[in-house]
Design the sequence.
């Protein structure tokens, strides 16, 4: 016979809430580790307690997981909004032209000084 269902709502008693948090946090961290080992998945998990304490797990390094997430998120946003990719390329072109103009100006100054 299994356990009864519980209502998913905030636990009012602070002691019970903390005990439940600790048990569920440990279970969640264990599942994250199992997922990374069994499926060779790159896993990053961060949990903040109500007091602000950080609990984390990363199968490789948290920094690499976050960098990979951010990179894929940016690529996904560009795919979803092609106009943003065009704007990004325009911005790169403008920055390149600005650097080129600055270089030409410096060369002009050097030519004037040399003569």
Sequence:
């Amino acid at each position: 016979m299994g356990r009864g269902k519980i209502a998913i709502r905030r636990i009012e008693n602070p002691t019970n809430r903390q005990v439940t948090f600790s048990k569920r946090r440990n279970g969640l961290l264990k599942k994250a580790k199992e997922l990374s080992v069994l499926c060779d998945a790159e896993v990053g998990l961060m949990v903040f307690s109500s007091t602000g304490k950080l609990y984390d797990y990363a199968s490789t390094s948290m920094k690499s997981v976050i960098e990979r997430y951010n990179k894929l998120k940016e690529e996904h946003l560009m795919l979803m909004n092609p106009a943003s990719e065009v704007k990004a390329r325009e911005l790169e072109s403008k920055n390149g032209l600005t650097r080129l103009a600055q270089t030409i100006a410096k060369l002009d100054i050097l030519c004037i000084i040399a003569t």
